[in-house]
Structures are given as structure tokens and as C-alpha cells.
Amino acid sequence: LAVAIVEEARRRGLQIPPVSDFETRVGSGVRVRLESHLVIVGNASHLAGGRPEEAAREGMEIPEELQARAADLSAQGRTVVFVGVDAHCAGLVALSDTVRPGSAEAVAHLKAMGLQVIMVTGDDARTAASVARLVGIEGVRAGARPEEKLAEIKRLQGLGRTVAMVGDGINDAPALAQACVGIAIGSGTDVAVAASDITLIRPDLGGVVDAIALSRATMRTIRQNLFWAFVYNVIGIPVAAGVLTPFTGWHMSPMLASAAMSMSSVSVVSNSLRLRGFRTGVGDALKAREGTTGSTG
Predict the structure, then answer these.
(1) Of the residues 17, 21, 42, 207, which has the maximum number of CB atoms within 10 A of its CB?
(2) Taking a C-beta distance cutoff of 8 angstroms, is the pair 105, 99 a contact?
(3) Residues 6 or more apart from 223 whose CB is under 8 A from it?
(4) How far is CA 211 from CA 40, 110, 174, 207, in A?
(5) Do residues 188 and 167 make contact, with C-beta atoms less than 8 angstroms apart?
């Protein structure tokens, strides 16, 4: 959110003077000294929770017209950031998270794979509900602070669920580290990447579908390899040892047994190499779609 606001200010040619006494409250906003003014930028609760020496004793009041405007913008799926100057609410900034092309298709694929998709976000309920409708997500947890995202992951794990967390921000890092599998978007923050188990190079959800599908194909290949290895050992070794000789007079030549051992290894390696040709087409299709539409997400 901060990057988007600063970039828009620069695009409008606004000069940003140096600040002092910078203080951040994770998931809420920031407060700084700008020349001789106290400036607070953040959500409504951040402004209302101003310190007595810095704001009104009851907190910084947001005018009714700004509250109504914020409600309309939130209903449109936009995130609203309020700006307070010297204990007075001076205005608001509305930001819109553009849903990446293909996100709805990626969520549909995840559901088809038997996964339950839940959105846990710091945005307010109206914004979260609007985005969830666009991409087809039913389960939504809005207004979640970093510690609440972490608590949600622990709650699901407490129910015996295997939980994968996809995130890209600083606020997502604790939940990414707690999840059974943390998946970071490569275009996200360094903290999120460091806290995750998997980092996707492409900044789209199609990569999540591909990663899960590839992991399932890998486990399927491992089970197949174990099956054939055990079959050989259970059948081949006793036969090579002469178990059938007293009954049939037939025994396996040591050279034939050695060749069978080699073929067993070749079959396992060959079966594993099939993964080199693994394709789901989901990520590539979504990437191609973004390229044809010219969208950057």
C-alpha cells in the first residue's frame, strides 16, 4: 500500500519532504513528524487510537462524509487509507488490488484438485468479499493482523489439516513459516521469500497449481518406484538364492540375476525421468493469457 501511494504521489509531481520520528504499527499504519506537523496514515482504528498527547482524548474523529465515502469505496473492492494531520482527519486514499488475469481459473483448478481455498487478508470485510467473489473463494477471513493470520494457520493445523499458505508480504511471513508448506510469490518481499518453503518465479497463482500438481506426480512416481523395487527384492532375491531349485530344478544364473538387478535400477531411473516431461498447462496458459492481454497484474 505504501509503495502504491508513494508512486502515485511521484507520478503527480508531488515533492515528498524528509520526515522524522517514523513509527509503524504492523497491520494498522504509520505516524511521522512532517516538519512541524504530526501525520498519521492508516486504517480507521489506527486513527481512532491516537495517543492523548497527539490526538483528541477519544481518538481522531473521522467526519461522517468521509465515513460514507469510505464505505462506498470499500463496497467497490477498494482498500481505504485515512490521513490525519494534527489530530484532524484530513482525507483518505483509496487503493484497488487488481485481480490478476487467470486468478479465478487457478482457484477453480485448486478446488478441482480437492483443496479448500480460504482467503485470509488484512483488508476490511467489504473489500475482501468483493475480491473473493471475483475469484470464486467462499471462505474469507478479513481484517486479519499478522498474528491473526498465524493463529488461523495454527487453528487449521489443530483440526488435522495439511495447510499451504500463499503470500507475498511482510505481514504474511509468520503464517508462511508456520504453514506445513509456505509458498511465496517471487515478486513479493524478501522477508516472505525467506520464510517460505517454495518461491514461485512467476507472480501468478497458476504456479501454485503447477507446484501442487508436480508434487503429487512426484509422490506418485516414488510410490511406483518403491513398488517395483520391492517386487524385485521379494521375488528376485529368493529365486536367485535357489528357492525353486528343490521343486523345479530351475535356478537363476548369477549373470541373469545381475542383469535383472541392473534392469531394476534402469526401470526406476527411467520412471523418474518421466517427470522431466511433466506439464499441467495451467501456469503456462495463464502466463500466455497475460502476455496476450498486456496485463501486468
Answers:
(1) 207
(2) no
(3) none
(4) 41, 11, 21, 6
(5) yes
C-alpha 226/C-alpha 222 separation (Å) is 6
Q: Residue 292 corresponds to which cell in the numbers above?
A: 496476450
Record the pTM.
0.63
DSSP string across the chain: -HHHHHHHHHHTT------EEEEEETTTEEEEEETTEEEEEE-HHHHHT--TTTS-TT-PPPPHHHHHHHHHHHHTTEEEEEEEETTEEEEEEEEE-PPPTTHHHHHHHHHHTT---EEE-SS-HHHHHHHHHHHT--EEE-S--HHHHHHHHHHHHHTT---EEEE-SGGGHHHHHHSSEEEEETTS-HHHHHH-SEEESSSSTHHHHHHHHHHHHHHHHHHHHHHHHHHIIIIIHHHHTTTTHHHHS----HHHHHHHHHHHHHHHHHHHHGGGG---SHHHHHHHHHHHHT---
> Angle at the Cα of 160 (from 206 to 180), degrees rounded to 5?
45
Residue 81 · residue 42 · CB < 8 Å: yes
Within 8 A by CB and 6+ apart from 4, the residues are: 95
User: Rg of the chain over CA atoms, in angstroms?
Assistant: 28
